[in-house]
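Hi V.,

You were right to ask for the full record rather than a summary. Here it is.
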Amino acid sequence: MFYFREQRGSLEESLRTLVTLKDWPELVAHIRRLFSLFPVAEEEISVEPYGYDARIGWQTYIVTIRGQGVAGFCTEINSKPAAETQMPPPREIAGNGSGAS
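Predicted structure:
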């Protein structure tokens, strides 16, 4: 299992879109739902290392769609069954307590 969040104007807004997905096919299906106004081929989706985000405790990967830009961000995609994977929730956003940073 892994987390995916959509690209938004702020981290707080992005975390409101947080979903837990189980594998690559589920990510592809989720992105196709998000971008349902135009077809997205699986080979147009890429996931690349982006860096550690200390605000939420993620080793972050950027998810892009060729020709469209950034779809969102995720933790490392893991194909293990959910029962074998223990994933902690993202940490609270550091800052003023409202979640804004």
